[in-house]
Amino acid sequence: MSDNSASDQPVLKVAISVPVSREFDYLPPTDGSLPVAGCRVVVPFGPRKQVGLVLEHSGASALPTGKLRRCSASLDEEPLLTGAELRLVRFTADYYHHPIGEVVAAAMPAILRQGKPLHPLIEMISATDLGAGADIESLAKRAPKQAELLETLLDAGGNGLEAEQLTDLLPNWRRVARALFEKGLITRFDARSADFDETLAPEAQPGPALNEDQQAALTALRSSDAFGAWLIEGVTGSGKTEVYLQRMRDIIDRGQQVLVLVPEIGLTPQLVTRLRNRLGIEPALLHSGLSDTERLAAWRAARSGAARLVVGTRSAIFTPLKNPGLIVVDEEHDHSFKQQEGLRYSARDLAIVRAKHLDIPVILGTATPTLEMLHHCRNGNYEHLRLPRRAGGAKPPAVHLVDTMKAPATDGLSEPLVEAIRRHLDGGGQVLIFLNRRGFAPTLICSSCGHIAGCDRCDSRLTVHARNRELRCHHCGHIRPLDTTCSECGESVRPLGEGTERLEDTLRLRFPDHTITRIDSDSTQRKGAMHEALDRARDGDADILVGTQMLSKGHHFPKLSLVGIVNADQGLFGTDFRSAERMAQSIVQVAGRAGRASRPGEVLIQTAYPGHDFWTTLIGGGYAQVAEDALAEREITRWPPFTRLALVRSAAHQRSDAINFLELARLFLENRCSDSLRVLGPVDAPMARKAGRYRAQLLLQSSDRRTLHSVLRELRPALEKDPAARKVRWSIDVDPIELF
Ligand code: ADP
Ligand code: ZN
What we know:
- This protein is of the alpha/beta class.
- It contains 22 helices and 31 strands.
- The protein is globular, with a radius of gyration of 28 Å.
- The model is unreliable at 1-6 (pLDDT under 50).
- Zinc ion (ZN) is lined by residues 455, 457-458, 460, 473, 475-476, 478.
């Protein structure tokens, strides 16, 4: 050994956020500290320094000791992630075939990734006494930007604002601030970031007495504190949440923490309020709407155990917990649990893995379980609990089809639907009109030559957004002014088909005396707009709600009695093997908003194919029947959950680069193919060109998970090394939920 002084020191295996599937070996820093697993270190990496996380100590390195570099510094005295959390990180890297350094990065708040301390000082800006007494009006005349900044800080009062918050409000404030600092009107100081405050919660409120079905489910859940995955399949309004609440209460009273994963916190403020009020506990919230310091504070509270209840979206699955006792996944079927870029993990699946590692129960609730979960229940891997009736006596809604061949829709609405809306409004009910397409119209067409306005960078049409007089591509985000004439022949153009904006206009024309609220991602962009709209909807101030699937998720609108589904045919002839499952989920979820309280609910579905088998099954047998038929079909056709899939995607400026790269992957796999692995492709992605890049894909299908993972384990590093990889963007998606 060339360097004896280092030989008795352990080698640190460090995860660094770079797109390479390996760990890196370093010696401990020279300051004598020995960072343990879960601590961050600063390491030299090529010409730069990087923040890394120690994964473990080892007696040996593949590198000769003389070549090993040392960590430059240790950043933590205590590990940020401990045993079970590091195990989850490792599992995630292995299962999704993703570089472990990037998994660690996903598991950590931004501030910690940047190498700042767990309790960082925050840069604060506030107005001085001099600033408070300044003559804002005269300042506004000379320097309006300065006046705006000073006023913003005065409005914030007290300690002023975090620099980061200020950047959200006034992106260029630093340039403006200089003059104000010089005049002594504002000041800058460092403060310790606020800690999570559990005392904010109100006193716990009692809930309703459970009905028989709920009680039976709760008794089953209480039968074990060890690992078990419990699927609660309860029709919408059956009182699933009440059941989890009681189980959460048990766990929390025992001094353990509960982690609740929800689809999109912005969409479910009602759930958070309900958890807070019923449990009398302030939840630590982890979602995308937080500032970096807020997110860190919640993360710290989960890690230290100060927060007994942790509620978050997808990435919260990686949050460290001091003393976890239960994980709940609400609306298990929701797609937002699967990350669709970078590290393509399923938070729902990781919740089950984490619960298993921790030997604690995990509850998965939904009215429309995925076929994957149902399959596991049938095989006896998971427990299946059912709540078949609505709680508190509400009746299931009556569902009817409107045949649009006989009763055609004008600007989206058929006469039977208009009549039903009128009937429900006259009876004091509230109406929800669902159309899963935002904008005014999905197409702009020339009345003369038939030319359709398309995106220059994608194989897609541009959507008409009439409110902003724009054409937008919903795939790459490209926006341009609305054409008034055809770009090909100069004749007049017209919007074809309808989106939520157009439907809103139609409803206003037909029901001028009623309040109409549109809820979609365009109408709710402003911060807080979503909350306000949902409050109006819940309090019954909006007579008619019109919107996309945003409206279908978990909301409870007591006055809502009619749901109209405007264009239900989009999914009937879908090419994806999941089409029927998805469509049934979205219809059942939105239909479930009707008649949740005392008013009986009604659902009208407009379709041009009322005789289609899908409708017969859904109306006759409900979601359960659709799911059962779909499972039988997938067993025959060998699609998931009867087989396992992985998708290798590539994208490049030249189509040939994208395809050639996947050809290499296919060759590599062919040499290792066994009977239980099928390789399909490469083929163009269903939308071949997106944002100026050509996209292709290679599908791997196997009846045996082990085979699939063992070839992927070899494929990933081989592709990383291949020079062809430099010309493309590529990824591996394990258990893909979108096949494009
Ligand atoms: P889910 O989560 O299945 O959609 P919730 O738990 O939100 O159902 O319950 C739906 C509505 O029924 C809520 O207003 C809830 O307060 C009420 N509810 C739930 N369980 C009962 C019960 N046992 N008795 C009376 N009302 C109930
Ligand atoms: Zn585009």
